[in-house]
Amino acid sequence: MKHFVEDIYLNGHKQAVLLLHSFTSNSKEMHYVAKMLHSKGYTSYAPNLAGHGASPEQLFASSMEQIWKHSRQAVQFLIDEKYEAITVIGQSLGGVLGIRLANEFPEVKALCIISSPVLERPVEGLEQRVVYYSKRYLQNRGSSEQELQEFLDDHFPRPAEKLIALQQFIVETGKQLHLLKQPLFLAKGMLDEPVFHQSIDMIEKTAISKFISKKKYDNSGHLITLGKERQLLTEDIIRFIEGIEKGTV
C-alpha cells in the first residue's frame, strides 16, 4: 500500500491552470476544481508542494525555501510545455505562493486566491496544523493510540525556526500586494477565522489590478475546495477565467 499522494496533471486544449494547495495538505485538496476545469478544456496541474503528500517526516525535513522553489518550478514546467497564459489558483499558503508567482512570471495572466493569509498569526497555530496532519497520517496508516502518542512525544514540539520562516514568508508576501496587476478572484469562507477575512480584504484594497472579483461563501470554512460550496466556488472560478478569455473581464 502506498502512503503518498500523486501529483495531478490533466492535459487539455485550452490554457493552463496551476492549482496550489495549503500548508500540510496535498494535491487531493484541489482535485475537484482541477477535474471540473479539465472538463471545460483547461490543462490542470496540481502538484504536491515540497515535503507534502507523504509522511510527516518528509514534511518536517522540508523548508519554506524548498516549497517556494518547487512552486516556481511548477510554473516553469508549464512554460516549458509551451503554455503562454497561466492562471494560478492557490488556497491558503497556495495563494500566498500565487501572489509571488504572479509578480515574478509574466506568463501568469490571472490569479485566484482562496482563504490566503498575508497577516501575521501565532506560530503555535501553525504547529497545531502539523500536529493534526501527523495524527491524520498515522491514523490512516492504522497506527495504534500508543504508537501515535509515542510519535507525537518524539517529534513535538517542533523547532521554531522553520515555522517562523513560514510566517515571515507570509508577512513579506503581504508587502508585495501593491505589485499585483493581474485580474484577481478572491474567495473567503465566512466560517473561517477573522485573520483570513482581513487578509482577503487587504489584498483587495492594496492590489493595483484593474479587475477584482471578491466572493463570499457563507457556509464554508477555511478549505473551500473541500467544503459543501466547492461546486459554487468552482463555477465562479470558471466564469472568471472564461471572462478573461472572452475579454469581458
Overall geometry: globular
Q: Between the first and last Cα atoms, what is the distance in angstroms? A: 46 Å
Q: What is the CA-atom radius of gyration, in angstroms?
A: 18 Å
Low-confidence stretches: none
Instruction: Give the helix level as a range of percent.
Output: 40-55%
N-to-C series of helices and strands: EEHEHHEHEHHHEHEH
- Counting helices, strands and paired strands, the structural category is alpha/beta
Query: What is the mean predicted local confidence, pLDDT?
Result: 96
Count the helices. How many?
A: 9
**Percent of residues in beta strands:** 5-15%
Q: Determine the oligomeric state from the structure.
A: single chain
- Record the strand order, biggest sheet: 1-3-2-4-5-6-7
- Total beta-strand segments: 7
Largest sheet: 7 strands, mixed
Question: How do the helices and strands line up, and which of them pair or pack?
Answer:
Blueprint: E1 8-10, E2 16-20, H1 31-39, E3 43-46, H2 56-61, H3 64-80, E4 86-91, H4 93-104, E5 108-114, H5 123-140, H6 145-155, H7 160-174, E6 184-189, H8 194-206, E7 212-217, H9 230-246
Parallel strand pairs: 2-3, 2-4, 4-5, 5-6, 6-7
Antiparallel strand pairs: 1-3
Helix pairs in contact: 1-9
